[in-house]
Specification:
Layout: H1 5-34, H2 43-50, H3 52-85, H4 91-98, H5 106-117, H6 122-130, H7 141-152, H8 155-165, H9 170-178, H10 183-194, H11 196-211, H12 215-220, H13 228-236, H14 242-268, H15 290-317, H16 322-327, H17 338-345, H18 347-380, H19 384-393, H20 395-398, H21 401-411, H22 429-452, H23 456-464, H24 469-497, H25 503-506, H26 514-522, H27 529-577
Helix pairs in contact: 1-14, 1-21, 2-14, 3-4, 3-7, 3-8, 3-11, 4-15, 5-15, 5-26, 9-10, 11-14, 13-14, 14-21, 17-18, 17-27, 18-22, 18-24, 22-24, 23-24, 24-27, 26-27
Length: 578
């Protein structure tokens, strides 16, 4: 297989891509920062140390990351417990409320909270009517960023911690209870320790998300609270301060690598397992203390309201006219489909939506198709070269988005022989390249897992019968992994629809994706209809994302339940026949 012409061509293209878009931009960023003009220099370090704004942003980023590591875990573990561990009435409704952040996030979520709680937000206007002396900017700065990002990033707990909790053995809990352990002791000494591996992973993701946060600090942080990513964006706008932006991005990348190494070592140092040999399904636990039971119910439903309120208000106000939205007034008699007709009927309003769909669709297709054959080669042939290539393809997971974007800007703002002497900075292509780069690690990991589940005997039998490599791949391997391929493509498409963090650095001025338009609307930089359009964009995005999530997860879960039900019925019939 390794001598196949198709494999050779794939290897050449892959080598060019890795060198051109993964290695050289980041290496060039280092050279431009510490050796401008070819001479070693620490001038960028001196400029950074003397910049009070830059140093403050560094401190704020690390503060935000540490605080989020605590708040997200506290809230995330709580919502998992009340929906999956404790017997709470309305748990399914609570889960749906907490899961709203699965269908909208990033700049859309930050803008949504500003529209609701900001200085001219709907809730703020209502509260000012009750309390005339109230500060309209009450929801801004560090507290606002922490609250929004805490609620936004508990999705990892819903997906991963919930799955890990379902594997906890009920017999272990019963054994601890029979030995006299209290419910609190069982939770603290039995249940939570079994969740430590996934909690470590979620903590890493949370810390990295807080460290490189851009949307929430930029929309809600105000002048008092700015983090590294917004400062990188500000400094990169002018060539004279671009070296400070590059150094800040490098600090962000270094912190990411160090954190991954440290937490990986900490995780490996622990032992987390269940002693039980025969597993039994976890049964929801009753909260026997009446006072604690009431407190848990109250906190659970208040949290659910906090998750649901922005979504409900955005949906309702998407049917109001622009003046009603601007004044924060809501009238059922004024509800209409005019905003939807304008967005879907006018080319100027629909253009950002179409641009985002085009970028997301192209990036999703290119990333999946481009890595199909690569993933198969890497999973089937393990040697020094393939291992090195796999590590290099995970660079986008190690380095923050801002660092990758800045590397592309600096490396391709002049003719470069690696891309045929063309200039990429300022073109429509560079954003698409960045999107594809960002999706490589996620796509590669899932495709490798899919190929690992394919029986090698089919491929070997076809090869023995004289089938060519490309034929075997097209007729045997691809159909086996096609469901996973479609799911990966759908998830990649979803995640890029409302992207802001990459687009703000690399988007073409005449082809602005939806994330940039929503950010401008959140800052009040556009016309009166802009906010109404943004509500419509948000509702449409939520519909698309929810549909995709259902197709990827919901139908699969439903099919598995039906299959399990059929199995139980067959087993019952066999038992009755005996």
């Amino acid at each position: 297989m390794l001598r196949s012409p198709f494999v050779i061509v794939t290897g050449v293209i892959l080598a060019w891509f890795v060198v051109t878009f993964l290695i050289w931009p980041n290496a060039n960023l280092l050279l431009q920062t510490f050796a401008p003009g070819g001479e070693p220099s620490l001038r960028a370090v001196e400029k950074l140390a003397s910049s009070e704004r830059a140093m403050t942003s560094l401190r704020n980023s690390f503060l935000l990351a540490f605080v989020l590591s605590v708040t997200v875990n506290v809230v995330g573990v709580f919502i998992v417990l009340v929906t999956r561990y404790y017997d709470i009435k309305g748990a399914r409704f609570l889960w749906l409320g907490y899961a709203t952040t699965l269908i909208y996030g990033g700049i859309v979520l930050a803008a949504g909270y500003k529209f609701v709680y900001g200085a001219d937000g709907i809730v703020t206007g209502f509260l000012q009517g009750l309390f005339p002396g109230m500060d309209p900017d009450w929801f801004s700065g560090f507290p606002a960023v922490v609250i929004v990002m805490t609620l936004a990033t508990t999705t990892n707990h819903l997906l991963f911690v919930s799955s890990a909790l379902a594997k906890v053995d009920q017999q272990t809990i019963e054994a601890a209870r029979n030995m006299g352990a209290s419910e609190w002791t069982i939770l603290r000494r039995v249940v939570l320790p079994m969740l430590k591996p996934v909690l470590f992973a979620v903590t890493i993701l949370t810390f990295l998300g807080g460290l490189g946060a851009l949307s929430a600090p930029q929309v809600l942080g105000g002048r008092e609270f700015q983090t590294i990513a917004p400062m990188i964006l500000t400094f990169s706008a002018t060539p004279s301060s671009r070296d400070i932006a590059a150094l800040l991005a490098l600090v962000l990348g270094l912190a990411t690598v160090v954190l991954l190494v440290v937490l990986t070592r900490v995780e490996r140092g622990g032992t987390y397992f269940s002693i039980a040999k025969v597993s039994s399904h976890l049964v929801k636990q009753k909260i026997r203390n009446p006072v604690l039971n009431v407190a848990v119910y109250a906190v659970a439903y208040v949290l659910c309201a906090a998750y649901l309120l922005p979504v409900i208000l955005i949906v309702l106000y998407s049917f109001q006219d622009s003046r009603a939205i601007e004044s924060g007034q809501f009238r059922f008699s004024a509800m209409s489909l005019d905003n939807y007709a304008r967005v879907l009927g006018e080319s100027a309003s629909l253009r950002p939506f179409v641009i985002s769909i085009a970028y997301a669709g192209l990036a999703a297709v290119i990333s999946v198709i481009g890595l199909l054959f690569v993933a198969r080669i890497l999973s089937k042939h393990r040697n020094l070269i393939t291992v090195a290539v796999e590590y290099l393809l995970h660079i986008p997971w190690i380095l923050p988005t801002t660092l990758i974007a800045l590397g592309l800007i600096i490396s391709y703002d002049h003719p470069n022989p690696l891309v045929g002497g063309r200039v990429l900075t300022g073109t429509t292509v560079i954003l698409l390249i960045a999107y594809v780069i960002g999706k490589i690690p996620f796509t590669l990991r899932l495709l490798k897992a899919a190929f690992a589940g394919v029986d090698d005997s089919y491929e070997e039998a076809a090869s023995l019968m004289g089938a060519r490599t490309l034929y075997v791949f097209r007729r045997i391997l691809l159909p086996a992994v096609l469901p996973t391929v479609l799911a990966i493509g759908a998830l990649n498409f979803n995640s890029l629809l409302d992207d802001y963090d990459t687009a703000v650095f690399l988007a073409h001025p005449l082809f602005q994706p939806l994330g940039l338009v929503i950010k401008a609307s959140a800052e009040g930089e556009t016309n009166l209809d802009a906010r109404a359009n943004t509500f419509v964009y948000t509702v449409l995005l939520m519909i698309i994302t929810a549909t995709t999530m259902y197709l990827v997860y919901g139908r699969g879960t439903r099919d598995r339940r039906r299959s399990a039900a059929r199995t139980r019925r067959r087993r019952d019939r066999v038992g009755a026949g005996r």
